[in-house]
Each structure stands twice: as structure tokens, then as C-alpha cells.
Structure prediction request, 486 residues.
Amino acid sequence: MISGRPFRTFGIPFLTFAATTLAGPTPAISSVFVSGAKTLTNSAVLLSNEAWIIGGSGTPIPDQEYLDSAFDKYLAPNGYGAYRPNALFTPEGLYPTSAIRDLPFAASVARGVTILNDTITQQMDSGNNIVVLGYSQSAAIASLEMRNLAALGPAAPTADQLAFVLLADPMNPNGGLLERFAGLTLPSVGLTFYGATPSDTVYPTDIYTMEYDGYADFPRYPLNLLASMNAFAGIYYLHGTYLDLSIEDITPVADGGNAIELPVSSDYTGNTTYWMIPTENLPLLEPIRSIPGVGDAIAELIQPSLRVLINLGYGSITEGWDQGPADVATRFELFPTNINPTEVLQALAAGTEEGINNFVREISSGISFPEPTPPDFDILEAINSALADPAAAFTHVMNTFSSMASTLYSPLLPTADTFNAVLTSLPAYNFSLFIEGLESGDLLGAIGDPIAADVGLLTMGAAFEYYVLLHMFEGLGADLANLFAF
Prediction:
């Protein structure tokens, strides 16, 4: 997962850690203490208070910048400023987007849970109090560890010994993709939909979600294709940016910030606080915004009305998240029943007017086009270098072509496994939904739920395939650039 864009977390990793993924779960050796977190300069470090920070997909060991940002933005403000930050190794693989078949998501998560459990046990045996910060895949690891701890009964750590902070949680009870389709397994790609993060945990827990992040804030009604597409665009543009948010974005609204504390059930007795961070622009329109000169104007024209249509996928007109209690595990459904069509039409009319005004404002402010950039290589210099040493140039060219060929066929296995899931696991899931609807006497659900599930899951499959192909084209681009670098 990486800087600013989504390749840092569960969402869309292009993994570069093949050697580290072969390591077994030996936390006593692979847990790495990193000193010098900048927020600790004014705090007394209590050596019995330990913060264990875990990366997301593609980040098996968080670096110092990662630790500093996670600590400053999500731990210190929540009362853990005197804890000592540690980076915890976990494999963090995500096949098929990683193209490393040895580490599909379920296998990577299982190894991560073992590592985290051993670390917590070791810390408890040492008499330490700890807080665990998990981001994306590691939020799922932490969620499964919560289940393990709950099963220990009196032998489990107490609520004053252990706490959790989860970012971009794919098991978020009301919005997480792994809960929306709970119970589904896709063996060919090694993906298991585990269900929800325990909401009744005794451990103090904060869960942060960005609006429209498709892994943590997937629409409740995926039959709304616009909402499903926007959610997967959110995986690409939002899911990897939690550590890049400003302090204001994460600060609660009650304290002058932007983070909204979501309501829970009236009888809620758990110890989790759920935070939603609103997103200014629809991820689905980001490709349009990238059009030189006129992109922002076109996006601003479309966005207000499109936002209304997308929000309907969450059962709302105004917000891009489900309005039900945040603590309640909520599976996908066919369509919302709480929407007033008249209010939708009024919102679309208002959105159209707002879009026109925004478009005029953008155009009036002037349109500028970026200056063309020359290629970063000199073809004449490359030719002269080749003539100076033809044998070396020939070897370089042939090695580059070999690399390009390898890059070209790298998507074949992930693509085949994805189609395998579509042709086998998805029909089986559809049949189980059909039988479930019939047994409950819901004929509409028996017919409609499989269709709604297919819209969401096929959109997910198409998004995964897009990321695999994008990785291929990026690799080809790097190979072509290297062709003239001898």
C-alpha cells in the first residue's frame, strides 16, 4: 500500500515482497520495534504501554513514515499518546491482484491472525497494556482475533489491558464488503467473506471509515449499479488514503472536525465507536476530473445529481452510507423501501441546478491546459550507446523483450481463477440465496437477491480484473522505458 494512493492497503496492492511472504508466523523475531515517533518527544513513554501497528495488503512491515502518521492521527488523539509504537510483520498478500498465488487473502489473513495472537499473548505475559492498530486487511486480522479472544472467556485479556483502532475495515458491521456477502467463499481466488467485526467486544475499539470506500462502505443495495461501481472506484481512489487524511478530517464533528460518530442500537452494550469520514468528490468521477482543462467542470456539472442516484444504493438521498445502526451486522438487500420518490425527484432537480451553477463557476474561473512534457530519454543518445557496445545493447534489448513477455502473460492465471469463481462459486451462492428465500416464504427475495448479489460481485470481479490488467500495463510501460536505458 504505498503513499497517497490505494496500493497501500487491502484494496489494490501491487505486492513487491515475495521473499518476505515465505516467512512463517514467528512474531518474536519478525515484530519490529521502531523508535523515534515524533509525537513521543513531548510525552513520557511508559514501557508497559505498547502500540502494535500493522500494515495493509502490500505492506508487511510498516515503515517509519507509516508509523508516524498512524500514531499521530489515530492513536495519540484517542488517548494512546504515551504508548510506544511498534511495527508488526504480517504477510499481507492479496491474490489475484498481487499475482502471487501463494498468498491469497484467506491464507494471508490466517497467518496474520496467528502472528497477532502470539504477539498479544506474549505482551500479556510480559504484563504490558497494548493497543492494536489495523488497516484494511490487518483490520480483518484484528477482527478475527477479537473472536478468538472472546472464546477464551475468563482467560482473555481484560478491557483495560487491550484496545483496537481499525481503519478501512472490510468487516465493518454495516458496510464492510466481507459482511455484505457474509458466508460466501471463492476458493479459486482464496477469498472468504468472514462476516462482521464483533460489535459486542469488551475492548475499547474505534473504527474509521471513509464514505464510498468500497471495502469498508459498500452499498447495502448493490443492484444500484452506479453505487456498486462508485464503491469500487472508491477502493482505488480512497481506500489507500487514510494515513494521508488531515487531523481535521479525523477529528469528531463535536470538536470542530469532520468525522461523524455513527449511531448505534438503542440497547447497544459493546465498547466500539464507529466514525464516518465524508468524501467531498465521488470516486466514480475521478477519471473525468483527470481530463486536462475541462475535467473538473464536467465533473462538477454531473456530480450533484449523480450523488443522489449513488446514495440511493445506501438507502439515502443525502449520505453515502447506510442509515441503520453501525453496530448491526447488515447483509446486502434487494432495494430500499424507505425512499420517497417525490423527494428523489426534488433532490435530482436541485442537483441539476447546482451542477449547472458549479459548471458555470468552473468555466468562468478559466480553463488551463498543462504544458506537454518531453520524453525523459534521448533516442539519439540511446542509439549512440548501442553502437558503442552492440553486444551489450543486444543483450539488453532481448532481456527487456523477455521481461515484456513475462509481463504480458502474468494476468493469465489470475484471470482464469477469477472466471473459475464466476462460473462455479457464484452460481452455488446464487442457489443458496434462492433456497433461503423460498424457505422464508420470500419469493421476491428468492429471485431478486441472487441478481443483486451478482451485480455487486461481478462488479468486484471486473474491478479485480481491471487492477490485474492495470498492473500489466504499468509493467509494460516500465519495460518500454527501460528499453532505451542502456
